[in-house]
Backbone:
């Protein structure tokens, strides 16, 4: 435990996502144990009212059904080859306060993890390319934070 | 004539290019100065004890998620089988988007989110400018174009007057680093 992943992923293999072809995605692990995940269908309907609080039932359903996003802390178990999302806030609120464990592998700049249990609510297997340069220092993402303190 | 215009255009392009290089370096510097992982302290539009994080990467990419203190859980235990009220509760009570950002530090400080993907799809492909200030470890920005304009407070208390221009503040705080 205590290991960090510290990378940004921006691509998902479309065949592994339950959010249709060409999903759009961002996954950030920071070296201080925070993460932010976002997976969306390739396109979502714009709100005709131009107001997030005045969506139609279909617009609301399309967004929440077509997106999974959550934030929180993560931990890594190197022995089990798993990481766990400790979800603080999610667009699927049933996950708030839960721990979501995921077996994972890293190969080159590709990170892949699986979710065998909940196919209906999360991509079961997907992978992304790390955008962080391994030659950069590991605290690269936190540089601004250190200065701010 | 055409040739001269073309050459002039090329010269102008080269000039712009030469100017753009140092400007890019400056932008990179300013992004590093605000880069970090921020926790929401308050966002009035999402009620008391709003939750959220904003990650500004030193590489110019960002991700932000903001939600009310609580959102309705789905009785069906499936994200794709929610009720109308559950879907509405999530859409009204949260916003998330990611993309690239620029922190302009010259003159008035402005954070520009170049939104690629948002739970408010009308924001997709748009640039959202947010004047901001930093005091200690607290970054405060002002929302000038909201995803729910009616939520914006106005000085007169009349929500319908200039709803797109009324300021709203978000305050976020960097977490301590465990290097």
Residues:
């Amino acid at each position: 435990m205590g290991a960090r992943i510290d990378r940004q992923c921006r691509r998902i293999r479309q065949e592994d996502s339950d959010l249709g072809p060409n999903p759009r995605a961002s996954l950030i692990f920071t070296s201080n144990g925070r993460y932010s995940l976002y997976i969306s269908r390739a396109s979502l309907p714009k709100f005709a009212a131009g107001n997030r609080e005045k969506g139609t039932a279909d617009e609301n359903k399309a967004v929440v059904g077509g997106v999974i996003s959550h934030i929180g802390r993560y931990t890594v178990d190197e022995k089990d080859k798993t990481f766990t999302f400790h979800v603080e806030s999610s667009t699927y609120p049933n996950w708030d306060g839960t721990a979501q464990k995921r077996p994972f592998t890293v190969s080159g700049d590709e990170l892949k993890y699986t979710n065998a249990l909940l196919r209906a609510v999360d991509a079961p297997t997907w992978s992304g390319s790390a955008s962080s340069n391994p030659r950069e220092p590991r605290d690269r993402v936190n540089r601004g934070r250190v200065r701010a303190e | 004539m055409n040739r001269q215009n073309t050459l002039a255009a090329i010269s102008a392009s080269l000039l712009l290019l030469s100017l753009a290089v140092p400007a890019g370096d400056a932008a990179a510097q300013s992004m590093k100065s605000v880069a970090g992982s921020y926790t929401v302290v308050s966002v009035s539009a999402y009620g008391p004890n709003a939750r959220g994080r904003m990650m500004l990467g030193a590489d110019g990419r960002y991700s932000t998620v903001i939600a009310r203190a609580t959102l309705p859980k789905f009785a069906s235990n499936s994200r794709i089988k929610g009720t109308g009220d559950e879907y509405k509760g999530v859409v009204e009570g949260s916003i998330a988007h990611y993309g690239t950002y620029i922190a302009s530090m010259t003159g008035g400080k402005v954070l520009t989110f170049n939104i690629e993907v948002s739970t408010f799809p009308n924001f997709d492909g748009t640039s959202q400018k947010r004047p901001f200030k930093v005091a200690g470890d607290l970054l405060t920005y002002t929302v000038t174009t909201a995803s729910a304009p009616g939520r914006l407070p106005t000085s007169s208390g009349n929500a319908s007057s200039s709803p797109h221009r009324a300021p709203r503040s978000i305050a976020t705080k960097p977490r301590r680093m465990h290097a």
Notes: Chain B touches chain A through 61 residues (CB under 8 Å).
